[in-house]
Amino acid sequence: MEHFDERHIIEALRSGIPSRRVGRVFSEARPEIHQTILNLIDRTADEGTSSGIVISGKYGEGKTHLLHTVFDLAQKNNMVVSMISLSKETPMDKLPVIFRKIAANTFLPGREQPGFSPLYDKLTSGSAAYAELLMRAMKELETDKLCYVLQCLVKTDDADERFLLTSDLEGDLLSGAELKRLYKKLYQQTAKYAQPFSKTKHMQDYFSFLSMLFKEMGYRGWVLLFDEAELIGRMGKKARLKAYNNIHRFLFPAENLVSVLSVFALSSSFEEDVIEGKHEYENVKEVYSADLYPDEAAHIGAVLDRFLDAEQLRPLTGQEISDVLSHIRLYHEAAYGWTAPVSDDELVKISTLGGYLLRSRIRSAIEYLDQFYQYGAAPDLHAGSLTETDLAEEDVPSLEGVREIL
Q1: Tens digits of residue pLDDT in 173-193
Q2: β-sheet with 260-267: strand ranges across
Q3: Could you tell me whether strands 222-227 and 260-267 are parallel, antiparallel, or unpaired per DSSP bridges?
């Protein structure tokens, strides 16, 4: 009988591609930060408050694996989860683009495929969830655009109109004129905006609206996972500062963002390469003078402070590495239906041939197991112990100039 889950884990680890299943292998490897995240998930769900955390670690030490572990923990706690990687195509300085990417990568608990449009089918004009959601939107959002979108959605049965409205709620925004036309058709009344909607100023309404929707639909909250936040460092100066200002919305959220936990994964080289190397605090003063832009200056400074004070993803201890490799050996055995004649101690020694990075050690261990499985014996490898000097001198990619592998 094939063990597809175990094989998926081994193949993913071999290729270096993280996944939720792989994240479970590491869920017990770092108990302190694991418990910190679990406490934040519980507080977010139980108290209805929103917050954010920054996790910093070296390249190849498991930041993305940890995010997948958080993904799994949140879903087990009946929370909606969205996960994106920041990049040139997903730039943090453009909030409308970020929202579209998040909406396209949002997973309801128990679902393998992204998407939340089925929730809108449960909203009807006479339902308590619709009445509560509409009331909160009217009271707590900056503009009333989404109130009109919601009212049109529960009124129409036309497939094309519903597609336009649900697409708007996923980031493909309807124009104000188009929405007014649709509202007029459905209600024979004219929609009057108390505050005209601007996607450059009011996109936060969309995040807040979704957080309200998920709570009204019975979920305990919403977890937003942002991977590779260090890629902000490749932007131009003004774009970086705008990105920090947008991040402030998630790390220090307003009250109308309901039961949302935001987690940013950041390379530990960001402090030296970007904050210090590009003089970010001085850039804030230059571009956003505290006299002219007090809010922006304060928000960006708070985000930079939070980056410097990030939760550190420390390297695993020898025992923790041994535990991880032992799990991998068991998965390898289950995946291919065999018993590996390799002790945990031997696997730990062999793994050092790949270097000190966790990712490299895992690949070395899997390659060694592969050799035994395929040929009945492994190459005659002699694994020595790496000294602290060896570890310091290993060529670890930095943020600058290594675009291909970051």
Answers
A1: 999 999 999 999 999 999 998
A2: 106-107, 80-85, 222-227, 260-267, 51-57, 311-312
A3: parallel
Quick one: which of 72, 84, 58 has its CA closest to 28? 72
DSSP line for 210-255: HHHHHHHTT---EEEEEE-GGGGGGS-HHHHHHHHHHHHHHHS--T
Beta bridge partners, 227, equal 85
Q: How far apart are the C-alpha atoms of 18 and 24, rounded to whole Å? A: 11
Contact (CB, 8 A) for 199 and 375: no
Let me know: does 330 contact 340? Beta carbons within 8 Å.
no
* Gap between the Cα atoms of 206 and 343, Å rounded: 53
Identify the H or E element spanning 375. Answer: helix 358-375
- Cα–Cα distances (Å) from 53 to 221, 246, 250, 260, in that order, read 16, 15, 9, 11
**195 and 143 in contact (C-beta within 8 Å)?**
yes
> Distance between CA 50 and CA 76 in Å, rounded?
19
The encoded tokens of residue 390 equal 């060896």
Q: 41 vs 4, 37, 81, CA distance in Å?
A: 30, 6, 11
- Helix, strand, coil percentages (3-state) for the chain, rounded to 5, are 55, 10, 35
Distance, CA of 210 to CA of 193 (rounded, Å): 21
Amino acid at 114: P
Determine the Cα–Cα distance for residues 249 and 60; give it in Å rounded to an integer.
28
pTM across the whole model: 0.85
CA–CA separation, 374 and 370 (whole Å) = 6
H-assigned helices in 188-343: 204-216, 237-251, 270, 280-287, 294-308, 318-336
Q: H or E element: which one contains 264?
A: strand 260-267
The alpha helices in 62-158, defined as continuous H runs, are 63-76, 95-104, 118-121, 128-140, 145-155
Summarize pLDDT for 348-396 with one digit per residue, the tens. Answer: 998 888 777 778 888 899 999 999 898 887 666 554 444 333 333 333 3
Q: How far apart are CA 15 and CA 11, in angstroms?
A: 6
Q: What is the CA angle 209-214-220, rounded to 5? A: 130
| Cα separation, 48 vs 82, whole angstroms | 18
